[in-house]
Amino acid sequence: MTEPKDYKIAAVDRALALLEALADRPEQGVTSLAKSLGMTKSLVFRLLHTLEERGFVSRDPERAEYSLGYRIGVLGERLGKDGALLYAARPVMDALRDKTSENVNLVIREGLKSYVLATRAGYHSIRLFAQAGRNGPLHAGGGSLLLLAYADPSVVDTVLAQPLEAFTPHTVTDRAKLRQVLERIRANGYNIVLNDLDDGAFSVAAPIRSADGAVIASISVAGAVVRFDEERRETYLKAALDAAAEISERLSIHGPGENGRVKSMA
Amino acid sequence: MTEPKDYKIAAVDRALALLEALADRPEQGVTSLAKSLGMTKSLVFRLLHTLEERGFVSRDPERAEYSLGYRIGVLGERLGKDGALLYAARPVMDALRDKTSENVNLVIREGLKSYVLATRAGYHSIRLFAQAGRNGPLHAGGGSLLLLAYADPSVVDTVLAQPLEAFTPHTVTDRAKLRQVLERIRANGYNIVLNDLDDGAFSVAAPIRSADGAVIASISVAGAVVRFDEERRETYLKAALDAAAEISERLSIHGPGENGRVKSMA
DNA sequence: CGCAATGTTTTATTCTGTGAAACATCGTTT
DNA sequence: AAACGATGTTTCACAGAATAAAACATTGCG
Fold first, then answer.
1. What keywords are assigned to this protein (chains A, B) (predicted)?
2. How many domains does chain A contain in total?
């Protein structure tokens, strides 16, 4: 079905793509951006100018390199209901990272992909890097599998109907086995994986639920397998479950969220 | 001077204006947005579609009303150096709000205006509302005046050359007197105002400095004057100064900021 | 039951976004 | 020191895309 209606307006879409490219890799110049986006330099230049005038990007005057600007941070402070999860999660993620010294990831499902909403980098010098804003598979990775386990059955079917890439020798690509894995996740209420997405990495994931009990996101502790022993397994799991519970609770309490009417500013 | 060069691309600029309108007031429909922005409905409709496809806005399927989407929150997690201030300030603002139960505002200067980067709402039922993303004057308000006091002299001159609106009977609009006020702020290293921008409101502001010592922002505690006594004056001032110092320190420590290379995701 | 307001779609016209290429401004290399 | 190469900036002409207007659909309200 070649969607007959396309209301997308190209110029705007390009600008958004540019913003995402800058989020992906900050401190880029015009040429670099043009190349990686397949746009011409003049176009990128104009887009950046437009974005800069509104503070959505800022440039280092010396080096003529651009990064995302403060105005985006401000918008991020004023999200609609989509922001509730981020708000609730941020301090909890900070605490979880400090407690474990490992990477912490907040992941949601976006169609048939996983999507990293936010991350906290661990304190170890040898560590994995995850990046907010990245799409990943649903059939591998601690948080992703957990999301898949709690997703609508039709989603599971669709995912299983597609080719399942093996990211490492330990990735579960056998359909029947994968369904068992999902079953076990639901039974346990958490998910622990080793080496299934990144070789040498573990991930301990717990489900975050909305007020109506639906699983809407996962929070996970991830790091290098070499640091993962029986004791850490226990403490990380408890920490992740506690964190997930706290975020879930915050979401339920605040409910629809506060949309304070504006009266003035100080 | 009618700027001869205008590299702004209109479609993109309109999209950004739309985002800011949504930040200003979430949960708006097409018509409402079109009216407040002076655009046609079809245009707003297309812009929203484009933004929605990338997750920059999300819509309540029932009510067909739009709000800012999660993707903006994700970008907000990955700001360039502009984000350092927000990162450093967020937890400190939370703590300051909890300590005082009053509104907390993070304000920067944007040309000849003040700009609210972030706010934390106080816990009192009678309270002022401030809103992130709002421009305000430089010559009134606790944080604004403090920023003006530390701004380049040419900025002060320009501001004083313009008409100074009196927001309340207590707003200082006399040029000479205003210069004295700025002088006193610099001498004190903080600023406390009553009723100068909002009648019945106080504001206790302290300067946030970058690593090189320049004042780049202000953090302020604000609330209703009826709750402002000698004791609170002292505790709020100390709390604000401490908070400002801590943010400044965080900024200096983290320096250029961490731009972790991406390897994978979990 | 009908009216009013809102969201959605279509279409024609204009104007704007676009790419190509020239220009300027560096920093680097030989 | 001179020439080169890479990058950011500007110009310009044209195609095509953004836009306004108006028709259509849908919903809620009186």
1. DNA-binding, Transcription, Transcription regulation
2. 2
**Hey, is the C-beta of B108 within 8 angstroms of any chain A C-beta?**
yes
Please state the separation of Cα A167 from the chain's center in Å: 19
| Domain extent for B225 | 82-254
Q: Are B92 and B55 in contact (CB under 8 A)?
A: no
Protein-to-nucleotide distance from the CA of B42 to the C1' of C19, whole angstroms: 28
Note whether A217 and A117 are within 8 A (CB). yes
Q: How far is the CA of A61 from the C1' of C25 (A)?
A: 14
> At which residue do the structure tokens 């969607």 appear?
A3
Reference B96, options B235, B260, B209, B195; nearest CA is B235
Pair (A158, A206) in one structural domain: yes
Query: Residue B264 domain-assigned?
Result: no
- Residue A176 CB lies within 7 Å of the nucleic strand C: no
The amino acid present at B154, given as its one-letter code, is S
Distance CA A19, CA A14 (A): 9
What are the tens digits of pLDDT across the range A162-216? 999 999 999 999 999 999 999 999 999 999 999 999 999 999 999 999 988 999 9
**Amino acid, res. B126:** I
For residue B105, the number of C-alpha atoms closer than 13 Å in the C-beta half-sphere is 32
B252, two tokens? 């200096």
Contact B139, B148 (CB under 8 A): yes
